[in-house]
Structure formats: C-alpha cells, structure tokens
Automatic annotation (TrEMBL):
Protein name, entry field: Myelin transcription factor 1 domain-containing protein
Localisation per UniProt entry: Nucleus
Keyword Zinc: no
Main localization of the protein described in the UniProt heading: nucleus
Top-level taxonomy: Eukaryota, Metazoa, Chordata, Craniata, Vertebrata
Gene Ontology cellular-component annotations: nucleus
Amino acid sequence: MEKNLKSMEEENKQIEEKNDALYMELSGLSQALIRSLSNIRLPHMQEPMSDQNFDNYVDTLTHMFSNKDCYQNPENRALLESINQAVKGIEV
C-alpha cells in the first residue's frame, strides 16, 4: 500500500511538472498573440487585445473565424485577412 502511495505521489509530481511547462508555453503563446494583434481592433470591442481581455478577444476571434457569414462582409474579410497576416509568424 505504501509503495502504491509513493507511486501515485511521483505520478502526481510528474503531472504537476508537465502542467507547469504547459502553462509556461501557453503564457508565451498568449503574449505573442497579444503583441501580434495589439494594433488590430475588433468590432464591438473598445480596446485592443491585452491580458485583461484576452479570453473575450479570443472568443470573439473564434466566432468570427468560424462564422461563414463574417466573410460575406468586405470589411470583415479585410479584418480577418489582416489578423491572418499578423499571427502568421507565431510559432506554436
């Protein structure tokens, strides 16, 4: 039983280390995305992308890119193209 407990503790430690590494990678990607899109304003959003509105901004982007109707509007099409160009250099 003690051996199983030690094994589980070691497994939990490894999972925590992997989670920490993934969190650091996500943080770096988030900052790269914020830098790349800092000059691009989205419709219905008052401020440029930042740490404070990151989730909301990404939700809006996801909706825009998954909604085919957005591509019908020439203004949105130009915006989506400028976003594509801005994030092109981000390495994942």
